[in-house]
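re: ur question from earlier - yeah i can do the single chain one, its not a big deal. heres the input i used so u can compare w yours
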Amino acid sequence: MPVFLIERTFADKLEVSPDDAARVKRINEEIGVQWLISFLSADKKKTYCLYEASNADAIREAAERAGLPADSVIEVGELAPSGATGDVQKERLTRVAN
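and the output i got, formated as tokens:
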């Protein structure tokens, strides 16, 4: 399944409660998108997230339903230090996130 990088910009510092996270997870499951990992900017106003989804429209729909911005949604692959390219290795992302 394709992997997408989503850039989100927030007006204020991002604060996520457990209830907020559960709601977003539920919406993602209903639409069929899978969160892999996120990175938060130092000022806590931007996130860069990797998601697995059938297409970019599914990512945008999940974001809209959750009331989250999705400034850009880009399908990505992986570029290794050796210069090799390919599919994103989800197993490695799971190890990083846990």
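The beta strands are 3-9, 34-40, 46-52, 72-76, 78-79, 85-86. not sure if urs matches, ping me
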